[in-house]
Design a protein that fits this description.
By secondary structure, the chain is mainly alpha-helical. The chain has helices spanning 2-9, 11-45, 50-62, 65-72, 82-107, 111-119, 124-154, 167-176, 179-207.
Amino acid sequence: MNVVRFILDNDTQVLETTLEHLWLVGWSTVLAMLIGIPLGILISHRPRLSSPVLGSANIIQTIPSLALFGFLLPVPWLGARSDRLAILALTLYALLPIIRNTYTGIRGVDPAVVEAGRGMGMTESQVLWQVELPLATSMILSGVRVALVISVGLATIAAAIGAGGLGTFIFRGLSMVDNRVILAGAIPAAILALLADFGVGWLEGRLRPR
């Protein structure tokens, strides 16, 4: 109850930090999709590139988030704005599930269906857009779902470099040794992650081929 009272007493600040959190997660996820889906398509048609691309994305995942923020701080233009730096870092972390699921989804399309499309006179571009991508959409969204949930969690670390978000309450609570303040950031972040998981999961189910 103390946590609920604290949130109600600071509802304006909680709302502001929640919107900052959504801003960071939204932009990073969109950018990760714009980069990751084309890369997944590329390596699904050029398998020799799959190892270096997926390997690079895997390496990024192994870098601790605070260390990655530190590596990016000296970068011109990015280091001047903490929100830009946070969005780039979150984008890099979100790439792996999107690239991997796009690759797996397209490679998992039944070759007989692809050949049937070609046999009907479709070009490679038409096969991609009218056969492969529609059948792989559910798998791609599964990757986006994972990336979104990861970004919601990692965005709390962005407060460490002044990028705002719900992590502001968490770090403040840690410095004050106040569980109410920590939970004021952790609970909304957990709710956002659950809503994102449920929402994209519902869309994934609706678009799953039958």
